[in-house]
Amino acid sequence: MYGTTGNASLNSTCAKHDEFKYPLYSAVFSIVFVVGLITNVVAIYIFTCSLKLRNETTTYMMNLVVSDLLFVFTLPLRVFYFINVDWPFGSMLCKVSASLFHTNMYGSMLFLTCISVDRFLAIVHPFRSRAVRTKRNAKMVCAAVWVLVLSGSLPTGFLLESTTHENATNATFCFENFSSTQWKSHLSKVVIFIETVGFFIPLLLNVGCSVMVLQTLRRPQVVSRGGKLNKKKILRMIIVHLSIFCFCFIPYNVNLVFYALVRTKTLTGCFAESVVRTIFPIALCIAVSNCCFDPIVYYFTSETIQNSIKRKSQTNSKYDVMVSEALQSETAGSSLHFSLRNFKAKVFHSESSV
User: Membrane-spanning residues where (predicted)?
Assistant: First the structure.
């Protein structure tokens, strides 16, 4: 919604050079719809039908899948609009589509943060966190995330008039009609809220948790207990997780701050407007692509998913199945929890039966 400016000019004396955004949006959103739909449907099938082990990590990832799919289902409407530059679906669908965009973006950031914090607790505080890291608590955290995200996205989508009409072309615009008055009175406050709660705090938590996990992995006793193989897996997970988080969300959210400053006339000048208007479509497309990248997080974060795929694609001996089941217990970094293999197997056997 904030990614396009449409017929509401930021500064009437400045020339606009963002006409490229409509074909760009049409192409990128079409690709994201196809790839995001396929990968997330596969992910939700694995979570619901294939996994035998269910824990707090898979709970967070399931909610991330739901957030992605809700947004993916609205993309055909957006593609139609960006191709025709006309919204024939009514004000309600415009409001829903606008709300789900931010529900997905900030929901994805918060659920990715939950996974990062859960991994931090599992590795840095393996014993003390056992009472906290439960499926019940994970479900409560997910419910709180949904309430928080919807409280920021729904007001923006439903309290403001989301469609405007262009008399000259008889076209109806969606996502891009907010005036400077609306920005000053309402949207600037929303930006402060979602940027603080939905972006800056999760960014700090992701970076902070990752740094502390890396410091923990450098300890000799941790390396000898978990093994070099497990250390490499965790390092790979952290790199993939942070790379996707930073690549998808930093460009859009940083530019959103400057966009709000321009729209509220706090930041003036044609050069500033031109830079903001040029970067925003590109940053928005990158942000939307998180629907395609989130399944990569599932794959690298969860050994369970990898082993489920392996079990579906080949028939192994009883010994291979036992090895696969043992690897499943590494989903939440459990190999760093306990040094005794028998005790670790007993703990995760009880978790899988919950």
Answer: 27-48, 60-83, 103-121, 141-160, 190-214, 234-259, 279-301
What pLDDT is recorded for position 231?
Answer: 74
Classify residue 201: in a domain, yes or no. yes
Judge contact between 344 and 335, C-beta under 8 A. yes
CATH number (domain holding residue 197): 1.20.1070.10
Helix or strand or coil: residue 1? Answer: coil
Long-range contacts of 61-66 (CB under 8 A, 24+ apart): 61/111, 61/115, 61/297, 61/298, 61/301, 61/302, 63/107, 63/111, 63/142, 63/145, 63/146, 64/107, 64/108, 64/111, 64/112, 64/115, 64/294, 64/297, 64/298, 65/40, 65/294, 65/298
User: Is residue 74 domain-resident?
Assistant: yes
Residue 289 lies in a domain: yes
pLDDT, tens digit (0-9, with 9 covering 90-100), for 117-147: 998 888 888 888 888 888 899 999 999 999 9
Q: What is the pLDDT of residues 187-208, one digit of tens each?
A: 667 777 778 888 899 999 999 9
Domain assignment of residue 7, yes or no = no
Q: What is the pTM of this model?
A: 0.76
pLDDT of residue 323: 36
The mean predicted confidence, pLDDT, of the chain is: 75
DSSP SS3 for 174: strand
